[in-house]
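Exercise 4. Each item below gives a protein and its sequence. For each, produce the structure-token representation.

Item: Polysaccharide deacetylase family protein (Calorimonas adulescens).
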Amino acid sequence: MKRYISEVFILFVFIFVMALPESAWGAGKTYVPVLMYHNIIDGAIKPSEAGVTVNYERFMEQMEYLKLAGYNTISVDDYIGFMEGNKPLPPNPIMITFDDGYESNYKYAYPILKKLGMRAVINVIVSETKGEPNYHYWDPTHLTWEEMKEISDSGVIDIESHTYDLHYYASNGKKKIPAASGQIEINGKLESFDEYTTRVKNDFKKSKDMIEKNVGKRVKVLSYPYGVGNSTTKKLAREVGYEAMFTIKEGVMRQGDDIMSGKRIKVKGTETGFDIVRNIYRAAGVKGNVPFYDLEKHWASNDIMEMMLKGYMKGYPDKTFRPDSPVTRAEMATMVSSVFGLKPDGKALPFNDVMKNAWYYVPVSSCYADGIIGFYGNSFGPDIKATREEVVSVLSPFIKSGQSADLSIYKDTDEISPFAVHAMEKAVAAGIIKGKGEGRLSPKDDVTRAELAVMIERVLNQQSYDNRQSLWE
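Answer:
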């Protein structure tokens, strides 16, 4: 029996696979939300660090949700071109930025972004780079030139500036201020305005020059340390060749906004992808629900999103997924044939209710050719809702485990149809299907979109499944 996962994701048709709209949700004048991150860690985050640190798994979930929500990450050139009014952007544009240049951006963010086909910008504090003459260690570890070069060459991440060595506070004789924001005391003496502008301009230029020398690409963006700048710093940045600057002021960017005072949206370690998009909507003045809001607290959310990322499921044009809607037999056959790459063999179908011009004819033919829907006899019933025992029977050939569970512990085993008994024993043993409470398997219950996604995802997650590794991880 031919069983494999198709290398090309075949998207289904009709109601079960209605495509998301091309235009941005929240219609209106195009805007660019710019997200601001700092550090990523693999482990628990201290409450005091949640404002600047995101857990690795949380970051992955955030990026996956943004991808599913239809956002398209853009580059520095895309952003500048759009702000200057001469470059169109893809639907739902978004820019992802990291400040400081921590090595965790290379270790965690880079692989996730690369896998998802997304891109980002890292604004590095150049003096924190190992090997620099003025290098002073600042925990956590920062990127090396080799790492910056690698991720820049990949096209996934743009390396930009967070100054050479202005990421600190200093006294102006009255209070402590960010070192780039005004005149400060040096060796106990307040510098003159000319000394201030010379110090800042030299730093801006040195940072730009060093990145360009070691990374090999022109630097166009500078992110203010602590987000604080002024008209003088904007002028100095322009003079040394920067074309855009970012602050930490909350908001989104539109054409006509000051590109040298770019607004961003800070991402916290406690936030989900849904939270991020809600923050974007709030900043942009967009009303309405965020994409797939009906999955946010759903028990099957993670499995559904995995299936969507793989291209096997899609949502509806109204931004919902409808996880608890029942699945028809035609939809079940369409999804299974797509996921497992089944193909028709050209033979006539025995079903008197599956016409050749039907949208589900090919997937039903594919499932029949693979021998997994023969139990339907002469009538397939394409519009009838699929049951738990039917789905288990269709998936049974793809379950690698040869073990069989004792179903006598369930109260309703006598309700299982004869054709599905062995498949149910096999599926229960492999953990593909579980009881629904009160000691029942409920074999005749309708299968929802969420349940079908979870069962298929569990089959794909089998360690022994032949093509699992090449498919996604």
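Check: The chain has two domains: 22-290, 310-471.
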